[in-house]
Amino acid sequence: MSLKSTLQTFEKEQLIELIAELYKKHKVVKEHLDYTLENDDKALLKTYQQKIYTAFYPKGGRVFNLTKAKSAITEVKKLGVSPDMLAELMLYYVETGISITLEFGDINDAFYGNLISMYRNALENMKKAGTLNKYKDRVKCAVLDTRNMGWGFHDELKGGYSNYFQQ
User: Fold this and answer.
1) Under a CB-based contact definition with an 8 Å cutoff, are residues 98 and 146 in contact?
2) Which domain holds residue 113?
């Protein structure tokens, strides 16, 4: 018997109880239902920006955690947010990576490769959402902020900017 068939046999109160239990026990269910029912893009954006920021700037001065920052992007994708919101978070991720480099100095090739990949994905999402012009100044600022960074990071961002904005 399929899930849908099984659920159709439940009484309304049983369904409410099941959903409430899943909501309490599973963070991903809670976030999905909160987003679906409240549809509060601003609050969701702020929550995930904070997750990204905390991954780059953990409490206690520990080392940044790119895996944790990337998982915030993956989590928000699963919620089915708009390509524009996804692009916003991806660009924020890149901007935060640039900020940490400006603050602490050059990092390494893997770090910059990760940021470049996210930058390309952000640009593609902006294109998909038709919001390239909305983000043009921020993307340009990211390029300018990386002028003195190594590992080909600046060149990659500059190339991406040229591909999407100077056509």
Assistant:
1) yes
2) 11-165
